[in-house]
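Anyone up for a design puzzle?
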C-alpha cells in the first residue's frame, strides 16, 4: 500500500489497576489506506476499544501508552516521536462513534444544539448558517424532517435515529477517518442493516476511511475491505475480507467464522471455540491462543510469530502446516 493514512506500529497499552497491571494491547501493528474500511474483530476484552481509544489519544490514567506509535500521514500522533499533542487531528480529521451511543448524547440539549456545537467548533459557523449545516447533516444521515428534528431532544429519537445523529456529529468536521466502535450492537437487525448501509454510502460519497469495530464477522463481510482479527491484545491475522473468509489461516479466525451464523449455512449447528481467552493480567508466555489451539505444538511456547499467508494476508506462522482445521480436531 502506498502512503498509508494511518499506521499503528507495535502499539502497547497498559492499565495500572489496583488488581495489577493489565496489558490490554500487546504490540498491535496495522495500516489503513485512504478510502479503505478495516474491520477490527475479536471477542470481548480482546483490546479493540482500547486500540481505538489509543488512536484517538484517549488513553488516560490508570492507562498509558507503554510502547510503539501511531502515525497519521506519516506524522507521529501517539507514542514514540510525539513532541506536542497534535490537537487539530482528533475530533476533526479523525472522529469516533463510541461503543455506547445512548450515553454519548446529552439528554438535556436538543439535537440541533449538540450538532451546532460541533459545527461551530470545527467549521466556525454560527446562527442560521450553523442551523442550515446541521439540517444538511441530518439529511445526509437519512433523518427526514430535519428542521423540526433539530429542536427535539435525544429521548424523542429511536435508538436507530440516535445512532444516525451520532454519525452526523462524527462527519460534521468532514473527517478523513471515522472509527465506529460496535455502531450497531444495541440495535435490532433491520435497523443494523440500515446503519451499515448508511456508513457504506457515506464512505463512498465522502471518500472516508473507516475502522469498524465489531465482534460480528457477518457485518465485516458486508462492509469491510480488510479485516484484522484480535485475540488477547494482539493481532492474530489480517487480510482482505475475501482471503479471510476463503482461507482463514489462524485457528481462532476459523473458529470465529464457524461460529458466525450464515443464511446459506448447510450445517444447522454453530460451532463455538472451546476454552476461554487468557486474562491480560498475566498473559501467557508464547502464543496466547495456545491453550485453546487444537494444532498447538511445543514451538508455540515461543512468542507468537505471524507469517505471510499470501499477498497482504498475514497469519500464524504455522497456518497450513498440519491438518489445520479446528472443527476436525
Ligand atoms: N480504563 C480501564 N482500566 C482498566 N482496564 C481496562 C480499562 N479499559 C479497558 N481495560 C481492559 O482492557 C482490556 C481490553 O478491553 P477493550 O475494551 O479494548 O475490549 P474490547 O475488545 O473492546 O471488548 P468488547 O467487545 O467487550 O467491547 C480488557 O481486559 C479490559 O478490562
Ligand atoms: Mg469494546
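Challenge accepted. My sequence:
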Amino acid at each position: 500500500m502506498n502512503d498509508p493514512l494511518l499506521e499503528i506500529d507495535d502499539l502497547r497499552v497498559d492499565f495500572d489497576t489496583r488488581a495489577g497491571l493489565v496489558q490490554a494491547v500487546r504490540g498491535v501493528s496495522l495500516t489503513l489506506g485512504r478510502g479503505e474500511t478495516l474491520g477490527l474483530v475479536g471477542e470481548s476484552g480482546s483490546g479493540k476499544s482500547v486500540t481505538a481509544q489509543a488512536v484517538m489519544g484517549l488513553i488516560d490514567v490508570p492507562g498509558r501508552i507503554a510502547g510503539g506509535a501511531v502515525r497519521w500521514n506519516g506524522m507521529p500522533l501517539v507514542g514514540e516521536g510525539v513532541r506536542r499533542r497534535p490537537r487539530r487531528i482528533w475530533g476533526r480529521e479523525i472522529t469516533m462513534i463510541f461503543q455506547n451511543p445512548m450515553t454519548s448524547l446529552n439528554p438535556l440539549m436538543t439535537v440541533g444544539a449538540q450538532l451546532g456545537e460541533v459545527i461551530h467548533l470545527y467549521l466556525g459557523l454560527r446562527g442560521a448558517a450553523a442551523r442550515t449545516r446541521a439540517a444538511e447533516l441530518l439529511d445526509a444521515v437519512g433523518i427526514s424532517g430535519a428542521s423540526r428534528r433539530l429542536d427535539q431532544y435525544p429521548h424523542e429519537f429511536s435508538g436507530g435515529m440516535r445512532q444516525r445523529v451520532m454519525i452526523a456529529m462524527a462527519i460534521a468536521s468532514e473527517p478523513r477517518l471515522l472509527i465506529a466502535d460496535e455502531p450497531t450492537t444495541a440495535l435490532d437487525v433491520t435497523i443494523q442493516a440500515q446503519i451499515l448501509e448508511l456508513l457504506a454510502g457515506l464512505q463512498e460519497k465522502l471518500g472516508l476511511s473507516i475502522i469498524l469495530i465489531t465482534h460480528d464477522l457477518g457485518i465485516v463481510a458486508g462492509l469491510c475491505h480488510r479485516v484484522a482479527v484480535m485475540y488477547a491484545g494482539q493481532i492474530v491475522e489480517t487480510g482482505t475480507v475475501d482471503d479471510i473468509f476463503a482461507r482463514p489461516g489462524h485457528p481462532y479466525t476459523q473458529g470465529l467464522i464457524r461460529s458466525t451464523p450464515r443464511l446459506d449455512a448447510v450445517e444447522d449447528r454453530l460451532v463455538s471455540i472451546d476454552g476461554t481467552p487468557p486474562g491480560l493480567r498475566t498473559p501467557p508466555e508464547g502464543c496466547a491462543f495456545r491453550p485453546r489451539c487444537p494444532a498447538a505444538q511445543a514451538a508455540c511456547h515461543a512468542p507468537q510469530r505471524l507469517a505471510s499467508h499470501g499477498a497482504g494476508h498475514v497469519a500464524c506462522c504455522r497456518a497450513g502446516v498440519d491438518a489445520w482445521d479446528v472443527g476436525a480436531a
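A detail worth pointing out: Residues 6-105+175-316 form a domain with the Rossmann fold fold (CATH 3.40.50.300).
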